[in-house]
Amino acid sequence: MKNLKKAVNLMNKAFVYVSVALLAVVIISTSIQVFTRYIMNASLSGTDEVARFVFVWMSMLGASVCVSTHGHAAVSVLNDFLKGRSKLYKYHCVLIEALMVIGAAVIVIYGTKLAIYTSAQKSAGLGIPISFTYACLPVGGVGMILNGILNIIEAFLGEEGGEEK
C-alpha cells in the first residue's frame, strides 16, 4: 500500500510540474500569436496549434491530479445527505470512485485506439503526428485509474479516502 501511494504521489507531483510547464508554454505561445497577429499584422504559423495541443495535455494531466484530491466537479446532494451515516457514506464514495475508474478505463482504451489510428495523420501547422496530441488520453486516464484505485483502498482502510481533502 505504501509503495503504491508513494508511486502515485510521485506521478501526481510529476503531472503537476509538467502541467505548470505546459501552462507557461500556453501563455507564451498565445502571447506570441497575439503579438504577431495584431502588432506585426502577420500571424506566426503553428503557435495556435502549440497552444491547443499543450492545453489538451495540461487538461488531462490536471484531471488525473484532480481525482487524487477529490477536486472534480460533483453534485453533492446525496453526498451531503449521507455524510453523517459513516457506512453508507463510505460505500457511496467507493461507488463514485469505482465509476470514475471505469470511465477512465474507457478513456484509456479508446484514447489508445484513437492515438494509434491517427499516427499517420500530421497536424497542419506543425507537421507533427496528431497521435502525439491524442496520447494524452491514455496517459491521463492511467493517472486517473491509479488515483481512483488508491482512493478506493484508502476508503476501505479508513485513511483519508471518502473524505474531501
Topology:
Elements: H1 2-39, H2 47-68, H3 77-82, H4 86-117, H5 130-134, H6 136-157
Helix pairs in contact: 1-2, 1-6, 2-6, 4-6
Explain this structure:
The protein has one domain. It has six helices and no strands. The chain is an all-alpha fold and 165 residues long. The radius of gyration is 19 Å and the shape is elongated.
- Mean residue pLDDT: 90
- The proportion of strand residues reads under 5%
For the terminal residues, how far apart are their CA atoms?
Answer: 19 Å
- Provide the number of structural domains: 1
Shape: elongated
- Unreliable residue stretches: 161-165
What is the number of helices? 6
Helix content: over 70%
| Helix and strand pattern | HHHHHH
Main sheet attributes: strand count, strand direction, barrel closure: none
DSSP, total strands: 0
Counting helices, strands and paired strands, the structural category is mainly alpha
Radius of gyration: 19 Å
Features:
mainly alpha; single chain; 165 residues
Short note summarizing the structure:
This protein is mainly α and 165 residues long. The protein has one domain. Helix content is 76%, strand content 0%.
